[in-house]
Amino acid sequence: MSNRSFGWLLVLSIVGLLFFAEEIFSVFGMAIGSVIEISVSLLVSLFFVGLVFFIVATVFGSVLLGIGAALVALLLSGIGLFWPLILCVLVLYFIFRKPKVSRTG
């Protein structure tokens, strides 16, 4: 690439950055915020799953019962975290499923 085309590319990049800097930074901020939000939510839910396992294993003295309670807590926290996605998938399923044809009669 010659110096002349590199100069034009540099000028166009600076002009584009001046016009679209807010949008570019908002996309980066949204991506970083989403990663932090999901990470914190997962850490909190895993903390509560571990707490449920510890309490059940300590009170009832059974590791197997504690693992069962932790799995139930993990399932409920997963539903709690992803209920909007689950709801959208269920709505799309009921909209686009093919109705079963009754062959009686």
Give the topology.
Elements: H1 3-60, H2 63-96
Helix pairs in contact: 1-2
Features of this protein?
flat; mainly alpha; 105 residues
Provide a compact summary of the structure.
The protein contains two helices and no strands. The chain has 105 residues and is mainly α. The chain crosses the membrane at residues 6-28, 40-65, 71-96.
Shape: flat
Number of strands: 0
**How many helix segments?**
2
Radius of gyration: 26 Å
Helix content: over 70%
- Spell the H/E element sequence: HH
Mean pLDDT: 87
Q: Oligomer, anyone?
A: single chain
What fraction of the residues are assigned to beta strands by DSSP?
under 5%
Distance from first to last alpha carbon:
77 Å
In total, how many domains does the architecture comprise?
1
Q: State the major sheet.
A: none
Poorly predicted ranges? none
Derived structural class = mainly alpha
Describe the structure.
Keywords: Membrane, Transmembrane, Transmembrane helix. The structure is a single chain. The protein has one domain. The protein is mostly helical and 105 residues long. It is flat and about 75 Å long. The mean pLDDT is 87. The chain has 2 helices and no strands. 4% of the residues are buried.
